[in-house]
Every structure is written in C-alpha cells, then in structure tokens.
Specification:
Elements (H helix, E strand, L loop, with lengths): L13 H14 L5 E2 L11 H12 L12 H15 L8 E4 L1 H13 L5 E6 L3 H9 L3 E6 L10 H7 L4 E7 L11 H13 L3 E5 L22 E5 L12 E4 L2 H14 L5 H7 L5 H27 L13 E5 L7 H12 L1 E2 L1 E2 L11 E5 L4 H26 L1
Parallel strand pairs: 1-10, 3-4, 3-5, 5-6, 6-7
Antiparallel strand pairs: 2-8, 7-8, 9-12, 11-12
Helix pairs in contact: 1-11, 2-9, 4-5, 4-8, 10-12
Length: about 400
Amino acid sequence: MQFARRVESVAAFRVMTLLEAAQAREACGHDVIHLEVGEPDFPTPAPVIAAGQAALAAGQTRYTPACGLPALREAIAADYARRHGVTVSPSRIIVTPGASGALLLATLLCAERGDSVLMADPTYPCNRHFMGLADAQLDVVPVNAESGWQLTAELADEYWRDNTRAVMVASPSNPTGHVLSPTQLEELGDLCRARGAHLLVDEIYQGLTYGVASHTALADCPDAFVINSFSKYFGMTGWRLGWLVAPEAAVEPLSRLAQNVFLAASTPAQYAALAAFTPECEAELERRRHVLEGRREVLLEGLGRLGLAPLVPPQGAFYVWLDISHLSDDSEAFCRAFLEEENVAITPGTDFALAEGHRHVRIAFTADETRLVEALARFERFLARRAAQCDGALA
C-alpha cells in the first residue's frame, strides 16, 4: 500500500521499544527498575480524581466550546497571575487534548512548506516531527553544556536564514532538564519580533524546577506562543489535557483549526483540571516537587561517585542527560546491555539528538529514592563488568 510521504519523516520512539523489552523481562520475573519513560510514579492528585468523578456523575460528558471550558480558561489565567505575576486574558488560552494538541495547532498556524523553523538539538522528538508534518524545513541547532543545553538568541542569529519563520525552544527542556533565563527569553522574543518570526515556547515542565524560580516566557515575550500541559507538574498524564496561550490576533484562526482538528478537549478531563488549582491540590503538587528534587540529588550524587556527573546539572523536569562517550559510541546498544544485564531501563539519546544522540543517554528520576539507589548500585556493577571486559581484551 502507498501512503503519504510526510509519514516517512516521523521516526518511532526508541524508548517505546525499550519499554516493551523491559516489560517482557518483568513478565518473566525479573526485577526491572524503570528510569526510561517521562512519567513519575505519582498518581493523579485526589482532588482532581474526585472532581472528574463528580463531573461524570453529574453528566458532564457533552462537548465544550472548541477553545475549552470558560471556567478552566479563567482558572489558567488566574494561575499565571498568582504564580508568575503575568496578566493573560482567558480569551488567549485554548484548551487542547494534551500539549500535543497545542503543538499541532501552533505548528499548523505558524509553519508551512518553504518555511524554516529553528530548534535545538537535542530536543523532544515530537517537536521536530510536527514541523515535518507541516512540510516545514527544520534547521536544528547543536547545543551543549556551554550554551546551557539551550537555543539562545546568539545561536539563533547565527543559524538564521532568509526563510526562517519560527523559533521553538523548551524551558525546562526534555531531555536535558535545563531552563532559559528571563533575559535569554526576552532576547529570543526581541530577535523574532525584529525579523517577523514566531517564537514557540514549550513549557510543559513548568513548575518542576530546582534551585531556580519557575518562570513563563509570557513575562518577557507576551506575543509568544506558549504550550503547556496538565500532564507533568499536575500529574494528569493519562487525562490528555493541555493548553496553548496565543497572541490575541491568532485566537480566531486557532479556534477554527481546533474546531476542525479535534472539536474540543475531553469534557470530564477539563472539569477535573479545575481542581488542580485548589489550595489542597497545590500543596500536594509542591510536596511532589520536593520529592523529585530529593531524587535528583540522590541520582546526581550517585552519578558523581561513578565519575558520570553531568557538566551542568539539570534545573528542571525530571531527567539527567548523560554523556557516555567515554563508555560507548552506541547509546542504543549501551541501553540494551544495561537492561539485559542489570534490569535497569534508561533511554538512548538517539530519540532526542540527531547529532550526538549515540553518545548520550537520558535517565528519568521517576522512581523512588530506594529504587534509584539500587539502580546506581547496578550501574556501578555494570560499568565494572564492562571495564573488566575491556582490560581482558587488551591483555
């Protein structure tokens, strides 16, 4: 059968193949530690579940407006004012089926054939793939520890082309966990504004920061397209609910797109999300952030003892982006061996980086501290075995 060529640009998630292998090992009785998938082990907060159940019991199962429940759009706007001191009109907020729905709308509006979109390498692969589906040309910009693992205005200016129409960044980022400072965001916004381009900012890990304040690009770039989600900080991964904040002039065309692409986001999920902004839920979410921060410290300390500490520790999300180039130049084989020999699942960097993915892995600190300590002990054993094998080969 013949299919549209655009599908050829969409690569499969290697982490899902690894997850299947890890689950198969579990089914055979192996004790597998999962540090591969970007989903913490916390359940959805109880107030959110109760609100969802109440909505279902009340028969709240009909369509909402395409841009979302007015009450939810108002609650999101109020949260920006309370947590960030930023005034955002609820009319600029479009509620979507997950952050992916928001990314799809922003991509369809801002990029088309012949346009160039600047994006960091490494980045979350769907950010690249959505641009490809819009037939836009992707210009990836290599970033590293020196640039704070972020696409800065200086780098964007260096890679800018006559047909550059959009710049997309993520803060905190996946897979590196690094953030852009307010000054860096302002500089990116100024650059895009001066050259008539759009700035898209992925903020789906907003709120999950360590040692730096949570920040939104809307404070520095009010005309940016900002993508966010109830999945990560709010713990609602399976509810599939996100939102897009857009400039006022973009709301009407985005509304038309939403009507035709997905009609509306899940009604029960929207009613459930209203409870995410209650004081009871916010207290629980902050408690979980502190738990993740403790896990981060355990992982970084253990990696440091193994001589694997990252040059720039992650400031947000729940990942460590690890350079393994002195151990292997094949991150996929490295991750397979680690799983098969020690039953620890981590993600090969090839899912995220086009240039240096074979030299990096991503470790998610989404398991509790006891499991992280055990994973580090297994990592030490795994590395010792590989070193012994190398010594034997040289003897």
